[in-house]
Amino acid sequence: MSLKDKIRKAVEREEREYESEQRMKEKRSEEYEVLEEVFDKSTLMTIYEFMNEGVIREIYGVVNSGKESRIYWGIGSGGEEIAIKIFLTVSAEFRRGRLPYIIGDPRFRDVKRNLRHLVYQWAQKEFRNLKLAYEAKVRVPHPIAIKKNVLIMEFIGRNGVSAPLLKDVELKDPERMYRNILLHVKRLYRGASLVHGDLSEYNIMVWRGRPVLFDFSQAVSLEHPAANQFLMRDIENINRFFSKLGVNVIDVEEVYRVITGGTADLREDT
Length: 270
Description:
The protein is α+β, with helices and mostly antiparallel strands. The chain has seven helices and eleven strands.
């Protein structure tokens, strides 16, 4: 190959790289336009960092929106579907509604009362709780990464459509689902030393016929002074839901003893 041809090919390669870079900038600009309507500069920079690191390859629309957070559907580094949970740093109800779950948790003794710092700690708390639950073989979204108020985790669903909530599913075998959920509550308690604290048919998804527990930001360690109270409330919520479906539910106190190890185990059905 002549020197002239080498130079021409090098120039063409540089042009292709430049065009590719410009397309990427345009794409990210479009993505930012969607996000800028809601999120502050710090949050946008965190998302940008995740994209530069390759953790987020693509980011699309909102799949769930609440008072304290929004969840976006995205594509991760390996082409897998991911959920991008962004905790709002301006939520007026955050301090009042969530502070009791942090105060009293020995893992957060040094937490500051500044709202933004509280939100960052809340996001970190959910990541840690998910990690502990996942390692204890509780069916939860696999946690991938955390930075400030942005949590990246496995997307439960397909092609951007979230798995349905337990409350919206017509169960073929309600009793089996009931016992399966209690099994995972037991694993959470014994294997991860955690209590969900807000478990109900609204934060359990059903995917491929099995339950997936989510929304772990308020979960507390067994050392939390209200851990037993939260566990009883979780059991009551699950019993209430399944009793309406005609399931012969186990007495709340008996379930509590089973989960905490005070009596015979639940049947294993993963």
